[in-house]
Amino acid sequence: MIEITKRTTDEGHVYEVANFEEYAQLLESHGIEAPRANYHVFVSSENESLYQQSQCDLESQIKLFFKVSPASGIESQIVEKTAHG
Fold first, then answer.
1. Is the whole model's pTM more than 0.85, yes or no?
2. Among residues 35, 1, 17, 11, which one has the least CA distance to residue 81?
């Protein structure tokens, strides 16, 4: 299972894949081209608010960006990381 971490900042949240090498190998084994770098996705507090107002599922969109939506056949979860963890 791929873990996507969600880290809080003063302006919003940053999402990134926890173990990039494992993630890249898993994508390749499913015939999906892996990115060359571990991307960080920043979502501002303002944009999060807009997603909530429009009733869009932001976490599904984040998973889609990282190519681990249910259609990919790759299980994933988003885990919120605190300043201490």
1. yes
2. 17
Question: Pairing relation of β-strands 40-44 and 76-81?
Answer: unpaired
Token readout for 38 is: 């571990």
Q: What is the mean pLDDT of each run of 10 residues along the chain (85 residues)?
A: 95 96 96 94 95 90 93 94 69
Residue 36, pLDDT score: 93
For residue 79, which amino acid is it?
V
Give the CA distances from residue 11 to residues 7, 31, 44, 73, 78, in Å, rounded to whole numbers and listed in that order.
11, 36, 6, 33, 19
Inter-residue contact 5 to 18 (CB < 8 Å): yes
* Token pair in block for residue 46: 């303002």
Cα dihedral 24, 25, 30, 31 sign: positive
Please tell me the predicted confidence (pLDDT) of residue 82. 77
* Nearby residues of 12 by Cβ (< 8 Å), 6 or more positions away: 42, 43, 44, 45, 46, 47, 48
